[in-house]
What does this fold into?
Amino acid sequence: MVNFFLLIGVLLTGIAALLYFAPKLRILNFVDYHTPASVIRINRYAAARLLLPVCVSAGCAYIVEMRPELAVPLLFPVMISILVTVVWIAAGLTRLKDR
It folds into this structure.
């Protein structure tokens, strides 16, 4: 059986790596990039914040390997961590745009 939490973790790690190593790309759809210089700063900021759901997904993957019956209830911490990360990134954008 494929561990769904590992799939989420790998996907989010790939997005974080893309934001960090190719910071000139404008791939965040909820961000209003003002200047080209702010694109790099915002993407690097978002890449670091995306590691929170990666860590939560890795923890949930470990727990599901030990106790498979907890797979469905553990979807909620992963979803909550993704939502918290989006809010965290959006809240920090006002500070980064003003520089």
